[in-house]
Structure formats: structure tokens, C-alpha cells
Amino acid sequence: MLTASRTYSSQQAGSLLVPSRTLAGSVENRSAVAPEMVTTLRELGRIISHRLITPHFQPIFELSQAELYGYEALSRIVGPAVFNSIEELFCAAQGSGMLSGLERLCRERALTTAAQLGVNELLFLNVCPAVLADDHRPGVTAKLLGELGIERSRVVLELTERSLISDYDLFGRVVNHYRRQGYTIAIDDLGDGFAGLKMLAQIEPDYVKLARFMVAGIDKAPVRQALVEAIVTFCQRVGIKVIAEGIERQEELDYLTAIGIRYGQGYLLARPAPHLLERMPQLHDTSVPVQTWLQW
Ligand SMILES: [Ca+2]
User: Fold this and answer.
1) Is 228 exposed, middle or buried (0-12, 13-18, 19+ CB in 10 A)?
2) Contact 266, 248 (CB under 8 A)
3) Contact 174, 13 (CB under 8 A)
4) What is the distance in A from the centroid of ligand 1 to the CA of 146?
5) R_g (Cα) of the chain, nearest Å
6) CA proximity to 175, closest of 137, 210, 141, 206
7) How far is the C-alpha of 60 from the C-alpha of 207, rounded, in Å?
8) Hey, which end of the chain has fewer CB within 10 Å, N or C?
9) pLDDT in tens, 131-174
10) Is residue 143 within 8 Å of residue 175, measured between CB atoms?
């Protein structure tokens, strides 16, 4: 999406992140590669090349009216794999230089399936800032959206901090580039990242998503209540919509709506599914087993 003529290059995109030692680099020294690392890389390559990723969709609701607002696309690995979770898969991809390929695969699967299912609401996609800035394949997502008939204005890019961002000025320009193209921007997992407040101030997103960590048990956590209420006040003042993630108990929902949070998602409302769930269930206080649903 970022053309060569623009001010940011793939090399600059790489400079967004604090460099880390990669598995790919380690492979150059064969004698230093542990057998389990070879297995990990082989399995990672197999999943990407065979496209063994399937999307699930978790509804996001407007809470006061219990109305469907949008869907977040989440990814699952198809079939058995050495990775215990999709997050393990992404960690391996990030360390081996295959993150862009994996993330593009997840995005493509999510968009294609959303079009097949007839999603007409907002579609929230998880995007790593480094991949967002990567211009190796300019316009891939825009081209796919055009082919699928999905308007960019219906796509919300959820920026997840999986790596420490080192150049916020460059990051801000990259985000604004996508915003000018018509995409909407969300800060994901606020309260759970390296520098969520800095990102919030730098890019002035359309949405913030409160991390599950901030929401879990908030009805009984006075310190987090004070923090979340301050975030909500700030967001209301500057026109940012707040979405609470990971709502699992009626008491959490009651508290969040009482302080003015209008949007939410979580097991209490609807679990991720390969099909489209459109209605909030009749709510009741229930203990929902916690599973590791990840933000990719
Ligand atoms: Ca997310």
C-alpha cells in the first residue's frame, strides 16, 4: 500500500521497531540451530505455504441497545500443529522474519471469508505496526478489498503492540497514510502493551480497545476503575470510541456501561465463531471458562 515514491520505505518500516535477534539469523549458523528450532521453522513454513489458517468472527456490540456493531476477525490454525496457540505461531513468525507473510495470510483469509459470509458491519482486523508499514507488496489489501467489494471505510485496523516501537514520528505518518486511504484506526489492547498511552497520543485513533487485563474483575478493582474512568473521560473529550474487550461477567458489563462505555465484546456477549453471530444472548451471570483467544 505504501508506494515507493512515498517517504517511508521498507527499510524505514523496519526501523520502526527495536531490532531483535531473529531465528532466521541464527539459521545462518547451522551448528547453533537446535532441532526444535528447525521443527518450528519447518512447521511455520508449512502452515503459511498450505494456508492452514481459518478465521473466526467475534461480534462487537453497541451495549445500550444490544445491537451488533461489527466483528473482530481472529485466526485459528487448521489441524494439528506443534504450536499450542495462534499466539505461539505469531511469536515464532516474528522471530523468524515470516511475520509479514503470516499476517497477510490471516488478513486475506479474514477478508475473503467475511465477504463470503456477507458481513455488512464494520470489520476489525488485527495488524502489527511493522507489517502495516512494510511496503514490499504495495496495495495488496486495497486490491483484495476492491475485488471483494468491501469498502475501506468498513475496515478498522487494530494496531497491536507486539514489538516496541522506536520511531513514533514515522509510525504516525504511516498510520495517517492508511487513514487518508479511508481506513479507520484502533489502538488494540490498551493497558497491556509497551507504550499504549504514547501510541494513543501520537496517532489519535478512532477507537481504543481496552485490554482484557483491564476489564477482568473491574467491578471489584478500585485502582483499575480509576484508570479506566480516566481513559473513558479522555476519550469522550477527544472523540475516541471505547470498546471493552474480554467481558465475561454480568457485573463487569454493568460497571462498564455505567461509566459510559458504549461498545463491548467478550464471552458473555458472544464467542468467536466461524459463522456470524448477530444477537446478544439474554444475559445472565455465568462463569465462562477462559480460553486463550488471541488478538490476531
Ligand atoms: Ca484485537
Assistant:
1) buried
2) yes
3) yes
4) 24
5) 19
6) 206
7) 12
8) N
9) 777 654 557 888 899 999 999 999 999 987 655 667 777 778 88
10) no
| Separation of CA 27 and ligand 1 centre (Å) | 32
d(CA 172, CA 201): 10
| Ligand 1 center–CA 135 separation, angstroms | 22
- Other C-beta atoms lying within 10 Å of the C-beta of residue 42: 11
236 Cα to the center of ligand 1, angstroms: 21
| Fold of the domain built from segment(s) 47-264 | TIM Barrel (3.20.20)
Cell of 200: 494513543
Buried b / exposed e over 49-58, threshold 16 CB at 10 Å, is: eeebbbbbbb
Rounded (10°) angle between helices 86-95 and 35-49:
110
For the CA atoms of 16, 182, 158, 162, the dihedral, rounded to the nearest 10 degrees, stands at: -10
The CA distance from 171 to 258, in Å, is 35
